[in-house]
């Protein structure tokens, strides 16, 4: 039987989101008691919840349209499903501190260290341990991230995507905007807010699956990201 590792955050009201993005609110829209016609019930059991949140909530993938105005036609439902169902492996960057940049030579060295070669269509995951160290703290928005040079280097390798534990693929205020723009230019994407990456280290390749919702015109989508070891 395959081993499936869940790489996704739980979605809940009030959870941390990137600055200026919509807050998350989940509340009952209808209850079983209402549907049964009960009056003054002692309990309220949700039958349907209302979700109020942005596309870029929790563990999610960015559409190419999110990367810039020039890519507006490449919304999430137009992207090939093969983008979100790939071979992948995980690199250890847990030594990186707050707002530290990850550079191309470091990625190449990490690949060599774990005995992996980047192949066209891969998804690379970057473990920094920032989620376990900082989620829910004031430091959560100050995680390490890729430099612009690293994003360009990865794009030229022909990868489908990369993924990070943090709320942004680059360092906010330093490289994050450039990383997004390069993803648009070179037509690859990234996942944010991944968890459990420590469970993937030193285990070689796995099947990575992070299918988005089919949102018409979507600039991104929450995903249930998983790694599958056969």
Q: Features of this protein?
A:
230 residues; alpha/beta; nine-stranded mixed β-sheet; two-stranded antiparallel sheet; 13 strands
- Give the overall shape, derived from the CA principal axes: globular
Helix content: 10-25%
Task: Give me the strand/helix succession.
Answer: EEHEEEEHEHEHEHEEEE
Q: Tally of extended strands?
A: 13
Strand fraction equals 15-25%
Distance, first to last CA? 7 Å
Number of helices: 5
Based on helices, strands and strand pairing, what is the structural class? alpha/beta
Unreliable stretches covering 5 or more consecutive residues: none
Query: What multimeric state do the chains show?
Result: single chain
Radius of gyration: 19 Å
Mean pLDDT: 97
Which sequence of strands runs across the widest sheet? Answer: 1-13-11-5-7-9-10-4-12
Largest sheet: 9 strands, mixed
């Amino acid at each position: 039987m395959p081993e499936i590792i869940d790489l996704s955050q739980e979605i809940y009201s009030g959870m941390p989101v990137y600055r200026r993005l919509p807050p998350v609110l989940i509340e009952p829209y209808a209850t079983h008691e209402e549907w049964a016609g009960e009056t003054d019930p002692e309990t309220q059991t949700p039958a349907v919840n209302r979700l109020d949140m942005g596309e870029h909530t929790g563990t999610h993938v960015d559409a190419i349209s999110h990367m810039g105005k020039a890519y507006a036609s490449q919304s999430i439902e137009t992207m090939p499903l093969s983008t979100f169902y790939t071979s992948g492996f995980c690199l250890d960057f847990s030594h990186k501190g707050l707002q530290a940049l990850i550079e191309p030579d470091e990625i190449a060295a990490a690949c060599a260290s774990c005995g992996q070669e980047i192949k066209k269509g891969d998804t690379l995951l970057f473990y920094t341990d920032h989620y376990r160290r900082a989620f829910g703290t004031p430091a959560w928005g100050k995680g390490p991230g890729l430099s612009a040079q690293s994003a360009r280097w990865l794009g030229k390798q022909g990868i489908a995507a990369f993924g990070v534990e943090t709320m942004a693929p680059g360092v906010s205020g330093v490289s994050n905007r450039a990383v997004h723009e390069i993803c648009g230019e070179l037509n690859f994407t990234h996942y944010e807010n991944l968890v459990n990456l420590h469970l993937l280290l030193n285990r070689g390749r796995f099947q990575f699956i992070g299918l988005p919702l089919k949102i018409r015109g979507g600039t991104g989508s929450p995903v249930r990201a998983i790694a599958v070891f056969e």
